[in-house]
Specification:
Order of helices and strands: HHHH
Distance between the termini: 23 Å
Helix content: 55-70%
Radius of gyration: 18 Å
Number of helices: 4
Structural class: mainly alpha
Shape: elongated
Amino acid sequence: MAERTLADQLGGYLPEGIEALEEHERQDLADALRDARRRQAKALAEAGEEGLKYVPALLRGAVRKAVGL
């Protein structure tokens, strides 16, 4: 799978200040943004799983399905 460009990650528009950066700097920024989003997704998934500990065991499957875990 091809990595998304910084413009793709930001919705197709690069602010003027970012547009002025060198290509390698924009790539570093794109990599940092992608990594941050991956860490955020992982943390959210872990928090969701942790929250399920408070749901009765018989309901966990239905709750997982309902919230998309």
